[in-house]
Amino acid sequence: MRLALTTGEPAGIGPEIALAALDAVPAGVEIDLIGDRNLLRGARAPARIEHVPLAAPVCPGRPDPRNAQYVLALLDRAVDGALSGEYAAIVTAPVQKSVINDAGIPFSGHTEYLAQKAGAAQVVMMLVGGGLRVALATTHLPLAQVPGALSVEGLMGTLQILHAELQAKFGIAAPRIAVCGLNPHAGEGGHLGREEIEVIAPAIARLRARGLHLTGPLAADTAFVPQQAQRFDAILAMYHDQGLAPLKYASFGRAVNVTLGLPFIRTSVDHGTALDLAGSGRADAGSLRAALALAVELAQRQAA
């Protein structure tokens, strides 16, 4: 089994944690490290380097917009390999969204970019860690745009992908999914907002009628209480920080980002480029090790 590991923003910690994480690769798995070979000196078995040349020299901690296209080229190579069957899964080190945008390339994140490259109509971002699986109804949006981005059809699509991928990728025959409300107290019967009444509850009701095991809309401030969360196989949050703040509190540095709805397996870290740590030798590769381990687990289940 061969996996692709993209090494991310060259001025961040991606290249060094990619090298460090190789010690967690199980027997029988080979890794293609995709990046400039000069950043990956010391790579050892079970890795080989898939060389993509930098556009400009790298100074640790200082991203250069001239290398923005290089970062995207790493992803393009991995996607091409996954779609052709060369790779059983893709694992990605972090990228610096701001510097890609500074280069004049619209980029909101790995999730959205991979969906566009793979031609996926809709994908779902889910993080796994601390005993939780937390999926997001919206991803990288300003908070003020979240209510307008929610729709009955959109939520139904997200929940259907989440349900199907929990079955196919995680082997859960009848997934139990909790759905958070958007507003405090899940809208307090409409007194604190009507999204629960007009959007979230109707989407839940329509999918329950199709046999999905859904609970909600739940008040998000109690949905993640351990006694509540353990009743479910996954929780769907309405926006980025609603779901990822509690998950990262429970498991930061060991959680894994999984993109659902792609025609291939993709996992990633739960953190950013850590520019302040780049080149220091102090970066923690724990989340990348976990991402590699989960990618292998999912690929093995898919191949079985």
- Shape descriptor reads globular
The CATH topology of the largest domain is given as Isopropylmalate Dehydrogenase
CATH architecture of the largest domain: 3-Layer(aba) Sandwich
* Major sheet attributes: 11 strands, mixed
Measured between the Cα atoms of the first and last residue, the distance is 12 Å
Within the largest sheet, what's the order of strands?
A: 3-2-1-4-11-10-5-6-9-7-8
CATH superfamily of the largest domain: Isopropylmalate Dehydrogenase
Strand composition percent: 15-25%
Mean pLDDT: 96
- Helix-and-strand structural type: alpha/beta
Order of helices and strands: EHEEHEHHEEHHEHEHHEHEEH
What does this molecule look like?
The chain has 304 residues and is α/β, with parallel strands linked by helices. The protein folds into two domains: 163 residues, Isopropylmalate Dehydrogenase (3-Layer(aba) Sandwich); 138 residues, Isopropylmalate Dehydrogenase (3-Layer(aba) Sandwich), CATH 3.40.718. 37% of the residues lie in helices and 18% in strands. It has eleven helices and eleven strands. Helix 7 links the parallel strand 7 and strand 8. The chain is globular, with a radius of gyration of 19 Å.
Index terms:
18% strand, 11-stranded mixed beta sheet, 304 residues, Isopropylmalate Dehydrogenase, alpha/beta, 11 strands
Helix and strand topology:
Layout: E1 2-6, H1 14-20, E2 30-35, E3 47-51, H2 68-84, E4 89-92, H3 97-102, H4 110-118, E5 124-129, E6 132-136, H5 146-149, H6 152-168, E7 176-180, H7 195-208, E8 213-218, H8 220-223, H9 226-229, E9 234-237, H10 240-251, E10 256-260, E11 266-268, H11 286-303
Parallel strand pairs: 1-2, 1-4, 2-3, 4-11, 6-9, 7-8, 7-9
Antiparallel strand pairs: 5-6, 5-10, 10-11
